[in-house]
Amino acid sequence: MAIVYQYTAPYYWSSPQNQFHPATAVSSAASKLTPTFQGATPEQIAAFQQYQQQQFIQQQQQQQFQQQQQQQQQQQQQYQLHHSLSSSSLSSDSESPILPLKRQFSSDDINSSYGDDNLNDQDEDAGSDIDEEYLQEEQLKSFLQPFIKQILETKASHSILNLISDCIKEYITVKTMLSKIKIICKENQLDYIYQTLVQTFIKVDGDVKMVNFLVDCGVEESDLEFVKDIELTQNNMEVVKKKRERKRESISRGLRSPPNKWTKEESQNLIRLVTENGDKQWKKIASKLGGGKTGAQCAQHWKRVLSPEIKKGSWDEDEELLLFQLVDKHGQSWKNVAMEIKTRTDIQCRYQYFKATTSRQTPWSTTELELLTKKIDQILSHSYEVTSFQQVAKHLARAKTTKIPRTALECKMKWNEICSFYQQQNRHIPQQQIIPLYRSDQNF
C-alpha cells in the first residue's frame, strides 16, 4: 500500500505538530499531490467511505441544530412582518389584486429555476419578471395591511404572526399553520381572525383551486360558506385575459411593450439617465425615460439588472461563505443580506442560499470524488495552489452527476475534508508504505 497526502499548508490547513514545516521544499512538492485510491487496500477505501458518511451525518446534525437556534431567536425577537406591511399607504377598501399565491414550497422550485441566465440583460425583456415581482409584492403588502392590523390589535398577535412567518420560511406547512392558528383563535375567542385569514387566501388568489387546496389543508366547509358570494375564476383565466387586455392597451398607446417590460433601447437610456442624474432621483428619471415606466420600476431594474456593482454568474467560495455568515446574522431577510454583500441582489442571495443548502443534502458519489481530484490535480500541475474553486465547480457541473450542481464552497469543503482524512491516515501508515513526497517527473 502506498498512500501519502500533504497539501498547501498556508491555504488549506494549519499544519499540526510533529509535521514538517510548510516552507520546506519537500512540502512544496507534496502540495501538488492529490488524494488517490490507486494502491489503497479495501480496508482503507472502506475507512474513507465510512469517514465520509460520518462527516455527512455530522453536517446534517449541525444544520438541524442551526435551524433550531434560528427558531429560538425568532421566538425571542419581535416578529417583523407587520413593519414591512405597515409601510403601505393604501386604504383597507382597496380592490383585491390579481396575484399568484405560492401554495407549497419545495426544492423543485429551486431545481426548475437553476441557472444564472435569468439575471442577464441580453434578452429584450430582461429583468421584467423581477420588476413585476416587486410590484406584486408591494401590492400584496398593501392588500394585507388591514388584516395584519387586525392581528396586531389582539393579545395573540405574537403567536399568530410567528406561525405565519414560520410558514413563509417553510419551517411548517400551510396545513399546520392553519390548524394551529385555528386553535389559538378558539382559545382566545378570536374566531373572526381565523375566518379573515381564510377569506384572505381566497380573495388574493381568486381561484377555485385555492378553495380545494384549503379543504385539503383541513379548513372546514362551514368556514368556506362565504365563497358562494364570491365570483371565482377557473384556472385563473381572468388573470390571463387581463394581461392580454393590458398588452393591447399598451400597443394602442404606441408602446412597443407593456410598462413592466424592458427593451434594450430603454435599458441603454436608463443607464444614460442614471449617469446624468445619479441613482436617487427615480421619479425624475422615469419622467424623462417615458414609456409608462414608474420610478419604482426604474429603481428595481437598475439595482437588480443594470448596476455595474452587481455581479452576474456563479458565486466563488468567499462570496458564498460570506452569504452563510450573513444569513446566520440576519436570518432570511434577503434585503439586509444583500445590503451587506453589496455585489449581489436579494434575489441572487436567496437563490444561491437555497441552491447551496439543497445541494449539501446529497452525499458525494465516488464519481464526483474522482472528478474533483482529477480536476484539482490538473490545476496543480500548472499552479502552486488552487486560487479559486469556481472552475472546479463548473467542471463538476458539466458532468451532470447531481440534479443541483455543487457550489465552489462545497467543492472546497470536500477537498479539505479529503485532505484532512488522508493526513490523519498517514499517521498510522508504516514508513515503508509511504511513497516519496515528490514525483519522479519533477525536479526541485
From TrEMBL:
**Stretches assigned to the HTH myb-type domain:** 261-310, 311-350
Please give the residue ranges the record annotates as the region Disordered. Answer: 78-97, 106-126
One Pfam entry for this protein is: Myb_DNA-binding
Q: Which gene encodes it?
A: mybB
Identify the PANTHER family for this entry: SNRNA-ACTIVATING PROTEIN COMPLEX SUBUNIT 4
Going by the entry's taxonomy, the superkingdom of the source organism is recorded as Eukaryota
Q: Which UniProt keywords apply?
A: DNA-binding, Nucleus, Repeat, Transcription, Transcription regulation
What GO cellular component entries does it have?
snRNA-activating protein complex
One Gene Ontology term of the molecular function aspect: RNA polymerase III type 3 promoter sequence-specific DNA binding
Myb-like domain location: 260-306, 307-357
Protein name stated in the entry: Putative myb transcription factor
The record's Gene Ontology biological-process terms are: snRNA transcription by RNA polymerase II; snRNA transcription by RNA polymerase III
